[in-house]
Structure formats: structure tokens, C-alpha cells
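Exercise: predict the structure of this protein bound to magnesium ion.
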Amino acid sequence: MHFPVPGSILEAITRLNDSGHEAYLVGGCVRDDYLGIPPHDYDICTSAYPEEIKACFQDENTIDTGIRHGTVTVVLEDYPIEITTYRADGPYSDGRRPDHVSFTHNLAEDLKRRDFTMNAMAWHPSVGIVDLFGGREDCNNHLIRCVGQARHRFNEDALRILRALRFASTLGFSIEESAADAMEERKASMKKVSVERITVELNKLMLGMNPAEVFRQYPRILFEVLPSLEPMYHCPQRSIFHCYDVWEHSLHALEDTPAELSIRWAALFHDSGKPAAITYDPDGTTHFRGHQSISTRIVEETLTKLRQPNAMIKEVTVLVKYHDERIGPDNLQQWLSKLGHPLFIKLMALQRADLGAHAPDVAAKVGNIDDLVVRANEMARSDACLSLRDLAVDGRLLVESGFGSGPFLGETLQYLLQRVINGFEPNDQQTLLSIAMKRLEEYNQRQNIQ
Ligand code: ATP
Ligand code: MG
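Solution:
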């Protein structure tokens, strides 16, 4: 292994071995380590049956994580380790999960049921890598290949279709031809997979090194789980500002985003309302007036159906809604105030990616956005007034000066904030207090007249 295996993992393997059982590291950790990626967790598989696993760790805390499927979690040195009995999956009749699983003493049986050759390797400290299906060679060639016959494996479990796309994105690998063909053929069966599992895979795919390329190569498969994207495919975009159709433009924008989930989802969907908004001039020039609000609705509906977290949906919705807003030095402070600095920076990342995916003359303007981000960062560091928190007067001071605690207090604070943000007044306590008092006086007069 490239990376040092944690002591508690080696200890768990040794304990199982000392009791006469086989035990290997398996799956994602062996793959990642072989590829030079630090593993994020370590799974152990063993010839020991669940009760035997527990007997090896009787002095330790063990949790029956998935005892029916053979998984016991052992906590060694405060480190939870999943240990799973070698399994052979029974037949799959529902396209989602095996009808039953059976335990086995045979490592090869356990590796055979795994999805891809790169995920079907095991490792033991004194044996080294066990690679029965050419996983290392496929890793060397950057290939995702099924263990066994592709069509059969995707038939068994449709989630594997999305896992293949996810790994293609995260590892930048290609999908072996017969696997890709079988995925296309079986794509409709992804409907049987639970929405939660689909969303986990899609989010991993979106955060990969290459999500746009996966959408470019396998649009039809992805439309199956993201049908609201389909109208963008081949939707024309004829104007001096654009050199790609809506779909290609969106993928180019996606390519240029940092690996942040909300920015990436926003980039993919920012123009999803264009197909519904399209109009043509007599010469064929396209316009998409009002597409921003349609895109906003589409992305909100889509992410809600996927049961994404509410905070993420809200953020993506704001980004899509404002993706076309013209923001410059003159209104920078208002936008910073409206969105707050972190979300504003994300909006700039989206606008930059969007701009860069236009025709070269337009794309050349991305430097303006970079300048704006520098200014926004300076403003956030300085004591520029961007929110009520920064204002030189607060509600308490106004109440002490004679304001009641009703809505007029809040209105006055907002009024003062807008005056300061727009540069009409300095953020100075005396100045703002005297404006507030004048407003209060006028307010009281109006009340008396009524
Ligand atoms: P990562 O944890 O980095 O997301 P992983 O490959 O470890 O990737 P897990 O979901 O943790 O993915 O699964 C662990 C292992 O279990 C996989 O490496 C694979 O061997 C096997 N596996 C997971 N899901 C499936 C599946 N749907 N069909 C067949 N084997 C699977
Ligand atoms: Mg894993």
C-alpha cells in the first residue's frame, strides 16, 4: 500500500487471523490506495461469520451494523471499523438488491459479486494485493469494467449504472464499451432505485474532476434521472454572444466551476429555462427573455424532488435567479449586502463560468469579475457597512432616543442602512441618529394629524 494503513485496522486483521480466519482490506480503500489517492475509510472482509467476528472482539464495543448482511462494526482505539463476512449474493429479481445473501468462506466468491474490477481487489499485509479480475490493469488504463458480464451486472442492480458514471467523474476514467452499451440499454431501470441513493451518487458525480464530460458522453442516461435537463439538449442559441447551443454552453460553464456543490448544480441548470423562453427574430437570431425565472423554478423543483437539503436548494435557487444580474463597482456594495460575502463570491464564480462559456469576445471579460471579487474581498475585510450588524446605530439606541418598538423602528433602521450602502450618508452615529430623529418627528406629526 502507498499510504500507511492505520494501526487499528492492522490490529483487527491480525486478531481475525490469530483466530484462524482470513481477513483482507477490500473495495474502495484498495482501489484508492492503488491509484495514489488517500483512502477515506477502510473496509475489512473476512471468512469469519458474524458471531465469530464478535467473538474475536469480545472485549471491544461491537455494533451489529448490518448483521443480516454480515457486517459488524468494531470500535478499536475509538476507530469504528466495518468488518463484513465474505458474501455471495443470491439472485436479484427486483433490479435493486439480492433476494438473499449467503455467507461463504471463499474470498473469490466475495470479490466476484462486486461491481467493477477496480472495486474487486483485496489486500493483506503479508499476501499483498489479490486481484482476480484485472483491476490493476484497468486502473492503469483508466477503465471502469464490470466484474463478469456487464449486461447481467447492471440487470441485477441498476444503481451500478450511476456508480459507473460517478466513478467516471471522480476518477476521470472511461467506461469500457460493453459496460457503456449495457448502461444505455438498462437506463430505464434506474427508476427502481431509491431517490436518496440516486442523489448521493449524483452529488458525488457533480463534485468529481470531470462532471461535464460525463454529461456530454452519457446525456441520455443522465436525463433518465434528471429529465428537466433534456429540453436543453440541442436547444439552439444563435446570437453574436454565443458559440454553443444551450446544452454545450451549460456544460462549458460547469467545466469552469470550482468543486462546490451549489455552484455546480447552479451552473448545470442556470439556463434550463431557455428552451421554454426561446423566441426567434426573422433572421433566426434567438432570444430568451425571462428565462432566469423559469430556470429558477426548474432547478428548485428538480432539487426538491431529489430531496437535496433545504439550505442547498435555497442557495442554488438564489444563484440561478441572479446569474444574469449585472454587477459592477457601482452596485457592488448593494449586492454584497443583499447576499452576504460567501454567497456573493459563489455568485461571482457562477457568473465567471457562465461568461467564459460565451463567444470569445464576451468570454474575454471574465477579468472584470476577477477585479470585482478582489474588491468584494477587500470590502469584506474592511469595515464597510453591509448589514444592520455593521450600522453605526442600532435598535437599542433608537429606543433610548424615543422610538417605540413597533415596525417603524425596523423600517427606520432599514432606511438608514440603504442610505449608507448607497453612499448617501457616512456610517456615522451622530449623522444617522439625527436623520432618525427627524424621521421620528415627521412620523409623530403624521400620527397626530390622523
Ligand atoms: P467510495 O467509498 O469511495 O465512495 P466505494 O467503492 O468504497 O467508493 P462503497 O459504497 O463504500 O463504495 O462500497 C464498498 C465496496 O462495496 C465497493 O468498492 C464495491 O466493491 C462494493 N459495492 C458497493 N456497491 C455495490 C453495488 N451496488 N454492487 C456491487 N458491489 C458494490
Ligand atoms: Mg467506501
